Fold:
Amino acid sequence: MVAFSAVTTVLSLRLFLRHEMDANQIASFNNFRDAVVDALYIGDDLGVQSASESLQKSIPELAFAVFLDRGRTGVRLGGLESLERFQKLDPRCAPAQGKEASMLDERRGVEHWRFYCSDIAQANAEGARISGTIFVGFNMNMLEEKVDGVLQRVLPSLVSAMLVILGLGLLAAYLFADKLTRPIRHLTEGAKAIGEGNWDTQIPVESSDELGFLAHEFNLMAMKLRELDQLKDDFVSSVSHELRSPLSAIAGYVELLRSKPLADIAADKRDKALSIIQESTDRLGRFINDILDLAKLKAGQVEVRRSKVDLADLIEDVMALFMPLFEKKEIQAVADVAGALPPVQVDEEKIRQVITNLASNALKFTPSGGRITISAKNQSDFVEVMVQDTGVGIPEEEKEAVFERFRQVKSPHAAVTGQKGTGLGLAIAKGNVEVHGGRIWIESELGKGTRVHFTIPFHSAS
Ligand code: ATP
Ligand code: MG
Structure:
């Protein structure tokens, strides 16, 4: 490739130099011709001779520059050297008509000559007529050598320049190709790493084009997968924690009961062991049901069996169920259903579960002497139910989060006594409200109390 370019460049350069050379030869011929015409006009033969000599001096490859005067029977004017060579070479150049010079290329063995000739016919200053032919000859071998010399001198620099250009070209091509393929390479490597479970992988976003967009989407995907993985880990550890404590209680008490004949165990100890085993199995059963409910809600597989339900009755039912517990904890509980509430088309069990969850939270997080109100009111398009307590309250930043599964507020709830929950109640309540097309939210003030609202639309899509 470099060799090919070098050869073409050398050939073009050579052509150019030869062309220049031809132009110079014609210019030299015309100069000599003008000098001869001027000298003859004033009858100055020496002028012709000196023009010939000075041309000879300035152009080493000039063979001769001579004027052959036909008017003066073959008088030849020119420098001494010119005249001698003219005599020897005896050029056969035939002048053409008009001012244009004729040219004749002649090869004699290894010698190569070029002759130019042209006739002149004019009157001199005294009116006498002058006619003759101007001959100028060049030694083409010398000129060729000169051209070759020039080419030989420039060739090494030319090749080095070309090598440099080629090197730079290759480097630019490599850098360009690398720039083009780098994002694709990063994408492939990143996708592979993400596929292998390295979700911390971040693919560099190097451009704002489609590839940059793809890299950005990959990073988002990796982040989502990371979060999902974390959620899965949290879920597994929460579930195993919730299973472990009742199971170890059961195992412990069963072991106690089997450690000696039943008759040898004190009746109160036996009863305590059995009631703890029962409590634990209830707790496990409830937990497993909650997990299954949540899984169904999450997968959108819950069946909503709607029937006409009177919410006031439902609230009264739940109140009645909780009343002994409220009384035990000395909590004042009120059901407040304003006016006549039209019946709603809902899955009674699911809405009962929501109100029960909210009532059990209110009970759990309200100290003795507090007050709990469950109210419902008609809001034209929907019914709004509210469970209000005067309990410990929920910090502002946790009001949304408590609807996530297993989410429990640490402080000040740590001080709350009684049976510990699993943090699934509100997540299930939210799911149940949402399958009815409603909304659930919390208003709360720490230390003052909490209001959990939920709505049930009269005309819901599901
Ligand atoms: P579970 O309901 O599964 O038995 P839980 O009651 O802890 O357990 P959620 O009902 O989901 O779980 O409630 C989540 C958390 O929100 C609670 O642990 C508690 O920290 C906070 N919370 C819920 N209701 C109240 C309330 N009325 N007052 C203060 N904090 C509440
Ligand atoms: Mg709860």
